[in-house]
Structure formats: C-alpha cells, structure tokens
UniProtKB/TrEMBL annotation, chain A:
Organism, scientific name: Rubrimonas cliftonensis
Membrane-protein topology: Peripheral membrane protein
Highest classification ranks of the organism: Bacteria, Pseudomonadati, Pseudomonadota, Alphaproteobacteria, Rhodobacterales
Keyword annotations from UniProtKB, A to Z: ATP-binding, Cell membrane, Membrane, Nucleotide-binding, Repeat, Sugar transport, Translocase, Transport
Protein name: Monosaccharide ABC transporter ATP-binding protein, CUT2 family
Domain ABC transporter: 22-258, 254-511
SUPFAM superfamilies hit by this protein: P-loop containing nucleoside triphosphate hydrolases
Automatic annotation (TrEMBL), chain B:
Protein localization: Cell membrane
Identification of the protein by name: Monosaccharide ABC transporter membrane protein, CUT2 family
MF-aspect GO terms: transmembrane transporter activity
Membrane topology label: Multi-pass membrane protein
Organism of origin: Rubrimonas cliftonensis
Length: 511, 320
C-alpha cells in the first residue's frame, strides 16, 4: 500500500486556510422515541485532531455514523473539500476516504487478522482467487506500523480485546483516508498500545488527514486534540480551541457542573474476610495467587492487559477450572464449578466485554438486568414483573441510565449506557463478593465518578469488592488496597494510603 | 395507568404475519364463495392442528437457538407405536408409549447437542434419518389400523362445537404463550438464543434448558403423530414426511429468527394459520396442487423479505 508523501509545512499551512476538509451542517437524526441529534454542525480541517466530547448518549457515535453512511440523517448536509456530497452507505463513505473506527468491535472472529483488515477489498489474482501472498504481505506491513505482537494469519477470535481493537484500527489504514474517525479507540488499550496509536495519529495528521477523536479520557483529549466540540443531548454546546480551555471548562460544558473531586472519606474499619484465595493457579495464565477481600473493603487489581487479571476473576467465578489452590468464602472452602454455584455463594462478576459476555443485545434493558437474578424475581418459576421492574427502576436511577424506556433493546443504547446495564445487572444481585472487570470502560466522566462513589457505597453496605482496571486513576480513586499483577503473579500489595504512581508502575512491569 | 397501558401494549403486540393473514382472508373471501362458509374455518383449524402443535414446540427450540429436524420422523414413530401397540397394551397405554417415545427422543437429541457440542442441525438431521429407519423396521413397512373405534372417533369428536383436535392445538398454544412470556424457563430460552455466552455468565443453566426444550418439541411431535393417526384411524410408516419443513416454514413466517433469541408463539400461530388459509383458499379456487407449492415457496421468501425491510427501516439499523 503506497501512501502519499508528507506535505511540507507551507503546504499544510495553506491547506489549513482553505475551506475545512469536512463540514457537517444542521444534522438531525431521530430514532423511534429519541432525538439523537438536533441540528448539529461540525467541521474538521486538514491535518487537525478534532475531539468530540459528551456524556453517554449525547449523540457522538450517531453523528459519526451519519458521516460514515451507517445511519441516514433526517436532515442535514455533508461537504467534503467544499463540495456537497451524499454518503448513503459505509462503502460510499470509504470510497470518499471517510473511515470510521467503530466503538463496538465489528470483526469477523472466524477469519484471520489479514482477512479482517482487508475485508471487502481482498487483493485478488486471476479468476477472482484471493492472493494470500499479497494479502499477508500488505497486512504485515500495516501491522508492523502498529508494532503489534500478533501475526496476520492469526484468527481474530483468539486475540484479546485489546488486540482486536488494534485490528480495528489497522483497518482504517488500508486506504489513504481523508478523514478518520476514532470512536473511543483506547477504551481497551494498554498504555504501550496507546503510545503507538498516538504515533499513528500524529503520522496521519502530518499527511493532512482530518481526525475526529471521541473519548471520555480527558488526558488524551488534551494531549491529542487541536479543537474540542462538546455535544449535549444531541445539540452542540460549543467548539473550543484546546489551548484556550481546560478540563474543568470542558466538563462544565459537558455535564453542566464541575466534578466533585473532593478527597474520599476514610473507609470505616473493614469487617471479616469474605473471600480468600490461596495459591490459585491455572495453567500458565497465572500461578500461586493469594489474597483476601474483607467485607466493606474495595480492593483494586491493577496490571497490564495479559497479566492474568480477567482470568483470575473468571476462575473465582467458576468459568475456568483451576489446577491448584483454594477458594474460601466466609472462611469455608467452596467448590465453584460454574456461575450458578458462584452466584449461589454470593459471588458476582460483571464481565469485561459487554457485547460478548455481558448482554443479550436483542433483549430489552429490564430483562437484561434481571437475567442474573431470575430466581430472585420469580416464584416457582413464574416471573414477577413487578419485582423485575423494581430492580430496573432502582438501578437505572442509581446509575443514571439514559434509555428511552425499559423496553428498548440494549442494542439501541449508546456504548456507555450499555455498560451501565451490565453494572446494574450485577449490582442488583446484592452479592457478598462483587468483582467488576473494567467497570467504567466507555463511561463519561460524570457517570464515572458516580460509579466510583457507588462502588464505595456498596462496600460501605458490607460488600467485598474487587475492582479490576487498567486505569491507574480509577484504581487509585476507589481502592483501599491495591494488588499489582505482573505476568500471572502477584507482584506486590499496596495500601492505598501509601502507594505512589511510580511504585505501581514499577510493580506491574516487573521491576 | 400509563404503565398498565404500556405493558398491555407489550403483550398485545401483533406480529406482522397477522396482517398478511388478514389480507389472505379478505382475498379468499372475495374470490371464493365457500371460504366464509360456516364449516370452513373449523376445517382449516383441523387441517393445521398437526403442523401447528409441532410448530409450538419448534418455536421454543428455535428461540433457544437450536432446531429439530427429526419431528417428521417422530410423528411417524409415535403414530405407529400408539396404533400398533393397541392390541397388546390397550389404547391408553399405547398412546402413552407413543408420546413417551417422542419425549425420550427429545431427551436424546438434547443430551447429544449439549454434551458433544455438535450443532443441533446435524444431530437432529441424523435423528431424522435414523428414526425413520426405526419406524420402517418396527412396522415392517406396514400400515397399522386402529381396531379401537374410540380411537378414531376421538379424531372426529368435538368439544362445545369446536373439533377436539383444534381445541387441543389452541389450548396448547395458550399454554406455550404463557410459558414463553411469563416463566423463568421462557425468559432463559430467549437469553440463551440471543447470546449463549452472556446467559452462561449470568448463571443460566444453559444445557438443562436446552434439553427440556428438545423434550418439549419431541412431545409436541409425538402428540401431533397421535392426533394425526386418530384422524386417519391408522398409521403409515411414511407419515409426517416433510413436516419438519412445513413446521419451520410456519415458525419462520411467524417472525422467529433462525439464529435464535427472537420470536413468539403468537407469531407462530399466525404463521400456522397463514399456511392453512393459503392451502384451503387455493384449494377452493381449484389451483392445482403443484402450483400451490410454488405459490407457498414464493410467499415464504416474499414475506420474510418484506419483514426484513420494514424492521430494518424502523430500527434505523445498519443498511447493507
Ligand atoms: N440504532 C439505534 N436505535 C435507536 N436509538 C439509538 C440507536 N443508536 C443510538 N440510539 C440512541 O441515540 C442516542 C445517542 O446515542 P450515541 O450512541 O450517539 O451516544 P454516544 O454519545 O456515542 O454515547 P457513548 O459515550 O455512551 O458512546 C442514545 O439515546 C441512544 O439510545
Ligand atoms: Mg458512542
């Protein structure tokens, strides 16, 4: 794949003075019962990173899907290089050089990495046969640029979520795109992969490509972007130059108030041990893991992707067979051979990947939430709709879920709101031990601090909580103690009071 | 108040196939004299009750994300057993054995699908071929005739003016509708069909529910075999051929998705009646039988095409 030569500085400066590369005007989009976009205008200049911010459900993804031909707007126009264009399908968008890196992974798990990257434009030789040699060579070329640790012929279904995300990004680099939209690309990436992604973005910028960058992580927004547009309830709240504003200013535009960053109240003395894990091992995923969780305590589990965090959680929850070690709940050794056992013992796990493990996408919000506790909302096998509704109402409220109604299929919710349904589903169980794996992936800053507060509150109610996260600020914000994992081993344990960021980073990198 | 209204609306959602059914009824009422004749509607109900009863079980299995191709063979097996064993065992025990054979086969199908992980399509395809073979072995390629007249009278009897077979179908449909909308088991069928992994994570005992559903469809197929043989007063080893296809056609017309996770008994009822009305109506118009098949094939595809179109637009989903 050949790429255009870089523009010289003058050329770039010149381009910037011309009409914006891309302009959306007066875009309105309604879904049954929701006005997702209301007269939104937005533009992207040559070689700039334009960040799009807003709460969960504000309409960011919808706006970008209109641009990429996935949704058809009710009204509004799109100009590319000053020319009005119609984008009626994702294919057409691609042909015009508009590429969207989706928030939700949209890969074919049974196909290889290379096939996924070139899906729809596989290189062929005579008789329409796929040229595997050229395919793999081209894919390898792109993968090298991303510096990933998997091969072009690997099956996508076997990759971790982070690596799948990298494949999704690789897809955008196949053509020489004019505009690339990244919809929360870093939600499941590690720091190392993030650095690579930022390099790629810098490269695209140099070539004059316009970038739209959606994220809930302020630090990224402020390092990457040139301008910021804030959406709220489907309307534009304003466009600012990044250097003229700060986090607080943007947050206020986004959620209408400043974030309460007051220090956390000191936790009351934790109660007796609820969960104790001794010498837990599973193949070469993790070895000899021992720790305990007390009632009323939040313990953070921090480590790089691949350090075995999710696998440990899955083993405790009975989704994986352990090959050594012991699990005790309230002091008694238990044998958990599957999620039903775990739930019976009061252990809940809110899984990492909401689309695969967390939700039945075609099912409505209420039924999804009650799925983990059908025993509690039924009598003799008969569902008690009132009880189901009560659970839904309680947790939709506590999590400030934004859904048109309980009847909406979760598929139609915004990414962050889907995540809230997953959380509600497990919080409602009122477990003794709650394990949450990446609880705030894709959740906006306002709701994030609400969820952290909720986790603290649950602990205060006597639940033992294990929070798995790859975001250091999150681990620091919620935990009383922090377990640092390195390569399937427990590297160190810290008390939240005397941990430093440096020490944490060292512990998880094996130093 | 608004809430009861809303929940009422949810349970009264009319699957789109009912609109098509209404159109068919209107069409045949205008074009034929006999369609609206008093006896005709009960005729249709009797004619459709066999496929209908199987379709109820099939709906549940398909919502669950599986399929059962062996239903036609089970119809023959259950019919042959319940007619053929009448001399030795007496009528009622023979019927019980016939029904039991369907349940047992469902158990076997379900256990194999669960424990081996082989696709239900393959497992039940094997069962369809194998069971048909068993039927031929058991009957020695012979038809059996019911000597107990009470047996064949049952097929012709009525309850409060409604043919007994039609009544059985409708009552069973009501029960299954209730099971699918109001019980934990029904909810789990939707969840497993929609996303098996997520259901497992949520603590649903996926295998158990799957097996129960296979037993249910086995029972339905066997019951259909019994009712069909009471209608004919006999059983033949070839009974129920192609029934799996007609059943699946009815279920799919009713809006149940082959991939699982979505569908309803109400829709299946509409699908079953649509097939019945089309057959009956074209029969009254004296359309030759083979043309009827052509029309049915075309209608199946057309209805699903329209459904996909309408639904996609409505949901504002991906346009491909
Ligand atoms: N296919 C759809 N059908 C119906 N409603 C939809 C659909 N897609 C999005 N919506 C609704 O449109 C609104 C905007 O959703 P959108 O996905 O654009 O939010 P977002 O800003 O990307 O949020 P997040 O930060 O959570 O990803 C939400 O209220 C959502 O429920
Ligand atoms: Mg989004």
């Amino acid at each position: 794949m050949s790429r255009v030569a870089h523009h010289t500085a003058e050329e770039l400066a010149d381009l910037k003075h011309r009409a914006p590369l891309l302009r959306l005007d007066g875009v309105t989009k309604t879904f049954p019962g929701v006005k997702a976009l209301d007269d939104v205008s937005f533009d992207v200049r040559h070689g700039e990173v334009h960040a799009l911010l807003g709460e969960n459900g504000a309409g960011k993804s919808t706006l970008m899907k209109v641009l990429a031909g996935v949704h058809r707007a009710n009204s509004g126009t799109i100009h590319l290089n000053g020319e009005p264009v119609e984008v009626n399908s994702p294919l057409e968008a691609k042909a015009r050089g508009i590429v969207l890196v989706h928030q939700e992974l949209s890969l074919a798990p049974e196909l290889s990495v290379a096939e996924n990257i070139f899906l729809g434009s596989l290189p062929t030789k005579r008789f329409g046969l796929v040229s595997w040699k050229r395919l793999n060579a081209a894919a390898t070329h792109i993968l090298d640029r991303l510096g990933v640790k998997f091969e072009s012929y690997d099956r996508v279904g076997d990759l971790s979520i982070a690596n799948q995300q990298m494949v999704e990004i690789a897809r955008a680099l196949v053509f020489t795109p004019k505009v690339v939209v990244f919809d929360e690309p870093t939600a499941s990436l590690t720091d190392a992969e993030k650095v690579v992604l930022f390099d790629v973005i810098a490269g695209l910028k140099k070539e004059g490509t316009g970038i739209v960058y959606i994220s809930h992580r302020m630090d990224e927004i402020f390092t990457l972007s040139d301008r910021i547009t804030v959406l709220r309830d489907g309307q534009t709240r304003g466009t600012l130059n990044t250097r003229d504003t700060d986090e607080d200013g943007v947050t206020r535009l986004m959620i209408g108030r400043s974030l309460d960053k007051s220090a956390r109240k000191a936790a009351p003395e934790p109660g007796p041990v609820a969960l104790e894990v001794k010498g837990l091992s599973c193949g070469d995923l993790f070895r000899d893991i021992s720790f305990s969780l007390r009632r009323g305590e939040v313990v953070g589990m921090y480590g790089l992707v691949g350090a075995g965090r999710t696998e440990i959680a899955e083993t405790i929850f009975g989704l994986r067979a352990k090959d050594g070690g012991e699990i005790r709940i309230d002091g008694a050794p238990v044998d958990i051979s599957g999620p039903p056992d775990a739930i019976r013992h009061g252990v809940a796990l809110a899984p990492e990947s909401r689309k695969e493990q967390g939700l039945v996408l075609g099912m409505n919000c209420r039924d999804n939430m009650s799925l983990s506790q059908l025993d509690a909302v039924s009598r003799g096998g008969w569902l008690d709709r009132g009880a189901e509704q009560a659970i839904y109402d309680e947790y939709a409220g506590r999590l400030s879920l934004k859904a048109p109604s309980w009847r909406t299929p979760v598929r139609n919710l915004s990414g962050g709101n889907q995540q809230k349904v997953v959380l509600g589903k497990w919080l409602g169980v009122k477990p003794r031990v709650l394990i949450v794996d990446e609880p705030t992936r894709g959740i906006d800053v306002g709701s994030k601090s609400e969820i952290h507060a909720l986790i603290r509150r649950l602990a205060a109610e006597g639940i033992a909580v294990l929070v798995i996260s790859s975001e250091m600020p999150e681990v620091l914000a919620v935990s009383d103690r922090i377990l640092a994992l390195y390569h399937g081993r427990l590297a160190r344990e810290f008390a939240a009071a005397d941990v430093t960021e440096d020490a944490l980073v060292q512990a998880i990198s094996g130093l | 108040m608004a809430d009861t209204l809303a929940s009422l609306r949810r349970y009264m959602v009319i699957p789109p196939i009912w609109l098509f059914l209404l159109a068919c009824v209107a069409f045949f009422s205008v074009l034929t004299d006999d369609f609206l004749a008093p006896g005709n509607f009960t005729n249709i109900l009797i004619q459709t009750s066999t496929i209908g009863i199987i379709a109820l079980g099939m709906t549940v299995v398909m919502i669950n994300g599986n399929i059962d191709l062996s239903v036609g063979a089970v119809v023959a097996l259950a019919a042959s057993l319940s007619v053929g064993l009448q001399d030795q065992l007496g009528t009622l025990p023979a019927v019980v054995v016939g029904l039991g054979s369907g349940v047992a086969l469902g158990l076997l199908n379900g256990m194999i699908v669960w424990k081996t992980g082989v696709d239900a399509f393959i497992v039940t395809l094997g069962a369809m071929i194998g069971v048909r073979g068993l039927v031929f072995i058991y009957t020695g390629e012979q038809s059996f005739f019911a000597m107990d007249f009470a047996y064949s009278d049952f097929g012709m009897s009525t309850i409060a003016g409604l043919p007994t077979l039609a009544a059985i179908f409708l009552v069973f449909a009501a029960i299954m509708h209730w099971v699918m909308t109001a019980t934990v088991h029904g909810r789990n069928a939707y969840a497993v069909g929609g996303n098996r992994e997520a259901a497992e994570h949520a603590g649903v005992r996926v295998g158990r529910h799957m097996v129960i559903n296979f037993m249910l469809v086995g029972f339905c197929a066997a019951l259909a075999g019994v009712t069909l043989s009471t209608q004919m007063g006999a059983s033949t080893p070839n009974l129920g051929r192609d029934y799996e296809l007609w059943t699946i056609t009815a279920v799919v017309l009713g809006g149940t998705k082959l991939a699982g996770g979505a569908g309803s008994i109400l829709g299946t009822l509409g699908g079953v009646l649509t097939i019945g009305v089309l057959r009956n109506g074209m029969n009254l118009m004296q359309v030759p039988a083979f043309y009827v098949l052509v029309v049915m094939g075309v209608i199946l595809i057309a209805v699903l095409f329209i459904d996909a179109r309408v639904n996609r637009r409505g949901a504002g989903e991906l346009r491909l």
